[in-house]
Amino acid sequence: MILAPSLLSANFGNLEKDINMINESQADWFHIDVMDGVFVPNISFGQPVIKFIKKLAKKPLDVHLMIVDPDRYFEDFKNAGADLITVHYEACTHLHRSISSIKQYGMKAGVVLNPHTPISVLEDIIVECDLVLLMSVNPGFGGQSFIENTYNKIKQLKELIIRKNPSCLIEVDGGVSINNYKKLIQAGADALVAGNAVFASENPIDTIAKFKE
Ligand code: DX5
Ligand code: ZN
Asked: pLDDT tens digits, the chain, 213 residues: what are they?
């Protein structure tokens, strides 16, 4: 199981400390949430902050773009240090072109689905995907509660993946906690994002270790 702590819940007053904590922990990736205040009702941070994270991070950067027309910035995010970029199905008119472009820049590419978007829309793009990220909350904020229908979506996605692209990973983002991670893995998830569950816990390193048990 891949665990990707979300830096959205980190302490921006001392990001270096939280980056080092993740470096020393058993976590696998850094999950980086980029929000533009248009696609989602919140603004987070952009390339200068990611460049700083990249300088210190000893693990891959999983960059989740919650922005409209993301193609404009793939080169910038590559230069900032992104290893994997995920774009929203709901934000890309020419999704096939977007996924191809991310790969041409030498990064892994994934599609994100909002909670209301059915798995069936992936039928013709799944062969191009390194990963699919299922939102288990409406994107925009950390600390929201998990939407239960996600389990059904994981199972449907797993069937599609087995049928068309067995190497594609399933990642789940939003409301993931120590109470639901086992069920998510059993349903077929390969990677889990955890923001609040890690950073609001008393001992984040221990919490990460519990997830990885
Ligand atoms: C939500 C972001 C998530 C968020 C998850 O829009 O995509 O990555 O940081 O936070 P938690 O784990 O607290 O729900
Ligand atoms: Zn995210």
From this structure: 999 999 999 999 999 999 999 999 999 999 999 999 999 999 999 999 999 999 999 999 999 999 999 999 999 999 999 999 999 999 999 999 999 999 999 999 999 999 999 999 999 999 999 999 999 999 999 999 999 999 999 999 999 999 999 999 999 999 999 999 999 999 999 999 999 999 999 999 999 999 999
Residues within 5 A (CB) of ion ligand 2: 33, 64, 173
CA distance 96 to 101: 9
| Catalytic positions, written as ranges | 33, 173
Question: Would you call 103 exposed, middle or buried from its count of C-beta atoms within 10 A (0-12, 13-18, 19+)?
Answer: middle
12 CB neighbour count, 10 Å cutoff: 11
- Of 3, 7, 9, 45, the one to substitute when testing ligand 1's pocket (max ligand atoms within 8 A of C-beta) is 9
- CA angle in degrees (0–180, nearest 5) for 213-148-119: 100
pTM above 0.90, yes or no: yes
Whether 103 contacts 148, CB under 8 Å: no
3-state secondary structure of 134: strand
**Which CATH topology does 2-212 take?**
TIM Barrel (3.20.20)
Domain boundaries of the chain, sorted by first residue: 2-212
Q: Give the closest ligand to the alpha carbon of residue 9.
A: 1
